[in-house]
TrEMBL record:
<dbReference type="InterPro" id="IPR036388">
    <property type="entry name" value="WH-like_DNA-bd_sf"/>
</dbReference>
<feature type="domain" description="SIS">
    <location>
        <begin position="151"/>
        <end position="288"/>
    </location>
</feature>
<dbReference type="GO" id="GO:1901135">
    <property type="term" value="P:carbohydrate derivative metabolic process"/>
</dbReference>
<dbReference type="InterPro" id="IPR001347">
    <property type="entry name" value="SIS_dom"/>
</dbReference>
<dbReference type="InterPro" id="IPR009057">
    <property type="entry name" value="Homeodomain-like_sf"/>
</dbReference>
<dbReference type="Pfam" id="PF01418">
    <property type="entry name" value="HTH_6"/>
</dbReference>
<feature type="domain" description="HTH rpiR-type">
    <location>
        <begin position="24"/>
        <end position="100"/>
    </location>
</feature>
<dbReference type="InterPro" id="IPR035472">
    <property type="entry name" value="RpiR-like_SIS"/>
</dbReference>
<keyword id="KW-0804">Transcription</keyword>
<dbReference type="InterPro" id="IPR000281">
    <property type="entry name" value="HTH_RpiR"/>
</dbReference>
<dbReference type="GO" id="GO:0003700">
    <property type="term" value="F:DNA-binding transcription factor activity"/>
</dbReference>
<dbReference type="GO" id="GO:0097367">
    <property type="term" value="F:carbohydrate derivative binding"/>
</dbReference>
<dbReference type="Pfam" id="PF01380">
    <property type="entry name" value="SIS"/>
</dbReference>
<keyword id="KW-0805">Transcription regulation</keyword>
<dbReference type="GO" id="GO:0003677">
    <property type="term" value="F:DNA binding"/>
</dbReference>
<protein>
    <recommendedName>
        <fullName>HTH-type transcriptional regulator MurR</fullName>
    </recommendedName>
</protein>
<dbReference type="InterPro" id="IPR046348">
    <property type="entry name" value="SIS_dom_sf"/>
</dbReference>
Length: 307
């Protein structure tokens, strides 16, 4: 990645994660100062980010053949990104794909290291607030308008909406499913008490839509549900916090939220923000058609004295 006089790199190089690499690619697409990547290089990087397992297993020669370039081209690309060579670049993918076996203990260790740093000026709680603000800013910057529009249209086309989020992601799924119910379509929020996911998803059809939220380390049932739905021809929308997530393989449309922080839990403000973006787009597209289903909801609230 070259720099011209007066240009300062907009992102740290080499990137330390696939999320960081994705931000470099996005900056390259926007032709930001300090980011000099050609269209072929950007296409190669995007393909590798969308297929991280493939990127970890292939040799430099095999990956070069796949993209119709020489091995030396990939080496030069890795060096422009700040790596010593292609092996160091490929190691980034291998680390990300391998992460997850000891997620909670590793995150707790990061938190302990952070809270015992000499010269720390903020409480852990205020530090968490700062991390979430950065997560929200990064999530907003990474949103792709075309993908958001495609998700909106998929929601509007679907006969029935299925929203899935298990364990720590259930809150996001419940929030999104609850407010999607206001638009007048039947909505099933999966994975509630009783854990009857197999029964709940058994009747899903290609006319429906599955929206699945999951974060590292992914819940295996969420991945399997996405695989099963995609195998039946059902369009799947994924909401994840990293580009190596296994559910992205099954997503027709993939949304991303940054959920970073040195905690034993995944910060999820970014996931909620993306859910709100989808809800706002759907509401704007429906316009006046929202009035009748909203009126029916309000009548139920009034009859039951809920509000």
């Amino acid at each position: 990645m070259s720099e011209t006089a007066g240009d300062e790199p907009t992102l740290p190089l080499p990137p330390r994660s696939l999320d960081g690499l994705r931000r470099v690619v996005e900056a390259g697409r926007r032709r930001e100062a300090g980011v000099r990547l050609g269209q072929r290089s950007l296409a190669i990087l995007e393909h590798m980010l969308d297929n991280p397992e493939e990127a970890t297993l292939g040799s430099i020669a095999a990956i070069a053949r796949q993209h119709g370039v020489s091995a030396s081209t990939l080496t030069r690309l890795a060096r422009r990104l700040g790596f010593d060579g292609f092996k160091a670049f490929q190691h980034l993918f291998r680390v990300e794909v391998a992460r997850g076996r000891h997620f909670y203990t590793e995150q707790a260790q990061r938190l302990m290291e952070t809270t015992t740093e000499a010269g720390r000026t903020h409480s852990p709680g205020m530090a968490a607030a700062g991390h979430e603000l950065q997560n929200l800013a990064d999530t907003a910057a990474s949103l792709d308008a075309g993908t958001v529009t495609a998700v909106r249209d998929a929601v509007l086309r679907a006969r029935r909406l299925y929203v899935l989020g298990l364990r720590g992601c259930y809150g996001v799924a419940h929030y999104l499913g609850y407010y999607l119910g206001f638009i007048g379509k039947p909505v099933s929020t999966l994975g509630a008490a009783g854990f009857t996911l197999a029964e709940e998803i058994s009747d899903i059809t290609p006319d429906d839509l599955l929206i699945a939220a999951t974060v590292r380390p992914e819940t295996r049932l969420t991945v399997d549900a996405c695989r099963m739905a995609a195998g039946k021809g059902v369009p799947v929308v994924t909401l994840t916090n990293h580009y190596a997530s296994p559910v992205r393989e099954y997503g027709r449309h993939n949304l991303y939220a940054r959920c970073d922080g040195p905690y034993y839990f995944n910060p999820v403000a970014g996931l909620f923000m993306v859910a709100e973006v989808v809800l706002a787009e759907v509401a704007a597209a429906l316009g006046e058609a929202m009035i009748d289903p909203l009126g029916r909801r309000e009548a139920s609230f009034e009859a039951l004295g809920i509000e």
